[in-house]
Design a protein that fits this description.
16 strands, alpha/beta, four-stranded antiparallel β-sheet, seven-stranded mixed β-sheet, binds S-adenosylmethionine
């Protein structure tokens, strides 16, 4: 990065973030240094416990039913980290939704060999059920991600001024320039500040044949959007992205409107948008609709006991995920759909949604 800046002048923050997180050897994620959870750098929904994955199984199961219980149903996860979410989903589906389990295949899109290795180890018991394609392939089913979009490199642009990364001696520093005046981004360049996230949406949309995209992350509709980055290591916020490079996480809030607009430009429909509290509460209500009399073996009943907090541990996990002052309001959920019959009822996760798709104020080009 220093050599590039010396040779070509200041570079966009997106270039710096790309190197700091994804440099093949030294990147925070690609090196395998990132640890999530109590003994790591930060918590995610997945690291709270297996209840999160278990609840999502009920949502995936409903999607499978909407797609006519196809036996060619694929769950694609991107940003899988150590494979814990996949494990939670597969274990729960196997014991509580066996027919669904038989019909599904699980794919993980993982660019980093060290992480793929961790995932393969963790998911050994599920042998042929899980595959690791090199890139997204055409699929019917659901594309799922938790905190993937916030890890995509961004440019720091505000009011026509861009914060670039330059050097003061050997130290990285921010330098401000009118937008679009770096050597690598010539004047007049109009690529978006979150170009990488938008391109990811293009790729997903190009490969989704029929089904849904569910993205969970923290962010804002544009009114309250903050164009800033958060840097975290060992559960502490750092002041500068130039501290502990390659050992700290760098993220930015997701700009949901631009993601939804890009999806619509790719002929996806917004199927729902809400906060995590309302999303998970809607899914929990789905468990009430399963008729326990249809299943004689209590263990085979779709999930109710462990998910609804029968054990103190599961109760605590559920509280952390749902509580408005914990993760319940910090995270939002966007669902997109393609080539599915327009149901009058929303997916269970959006049954109690506070924001209707129209809150994104998007017109619907596909209707
Ligand atoms: C914040 S972590 C989230 C991990 C996990 N989903 C969780 O909730 O615990 C973001 C993950 O996205 C991964 N990632 C970044 N770009 C990616 C891409 N293009 N394809 C797949 N994974 C990617 C990173 O390697 C990292 O593991």
């Amino acid at each position: 990065m220093r050599e590039t800046i010396r040779a070509k002048g200041p570079q966009s923050f997106a270039c710096f973030m790309q190197q700091a997180l994804y440099h093949p050897e030294h990147g925070y994620y690609s090196s395998g240094r990132c640890v999530i959870g109590r003994n790591g750098d930060y918590f995610t929904n997945v690291s709270v416990g297996s209840v999160f994955g278990q609840l999502l199984v009920a949502q995936f199961h409903e999607i499978w039913e909407r797609l006519g219980r196809t036996n060619d149903f694929v769950i694609i996860e991107q940003g899988s980290h150590d494979g814990q979410f996949a494990l939670d989903v597969l274990e729960f589906a196997q014991t509580r939704f066996p027919e669904f389990f038989d019909a599904l295949r699980y794919q993980i899109i993982e660019p980093f060999p060290k992480l793929e290795q961790q995932q393969r180890q963790k998911l050994e018991a599920f042998g042929g059920k899980v595959t690791w394609p090199d890139s997204l392939q055409p699929f019917t089913g659901v594309h799922f991600s938790n905190e993937l979009l916030d890890a995509m490199p961004v440019r720091l642009i505000r009011d026509g001024t861009e914060k670039l990364v330059g050097l003061d001696d050997d130290n990285f520093v921010f330098v401000e320039r009118p937008q679009g005046t770096t050597a690598s981004q010539p004047s007049g360049d109009n690529s978006a500040f979150n170009q990488a996230a938008l391109e990811l949406i293009d790729q997903i949309a190009a490969n989704l044949q029929r089904g849904y995209v569910i993205a969970i992350d923290y962010g804002f509709l544009d009114e309250q959007f903050e164009r800033d980055v958060q840097i975290r290591a060992r559960h502490r916020n750092l002041d500068s992205p130039f501290d502990q490079i390659g050992c700290a996480d760098i993220t930015t809030s997701v700009h949901w409107r631009s993601i939804a607009e890009r999806a619509q430009a790719n002929r996806l429909r917004v199927a729902g948008f809400t906060d995590q509290h309302h999303f998970l509460t809607g899914i929990i209500s789905r468990f009430e609709s399963y008729d326990p009399r249809s299943v004689t073996d209590a263990k085979q009943r779709p999930g109710v006991p462990s998910v609804l907090g029968n054990s103190p541990k599961a109760k605590r996990e559920l509280q952390t995920l749902l509580h408005p002052e914990m993760l319940g309001r910090a995270f939002q959920v966007l669902a997109l759909e393609k080539n599915v019959d327009r149901e009058t009822k929303p997916l269970s996760g959006f049954k109690f949604a506070t924001e209707s798709p129209s809150a994104l104020r998007l017109t619907d080009p596909v209707s």
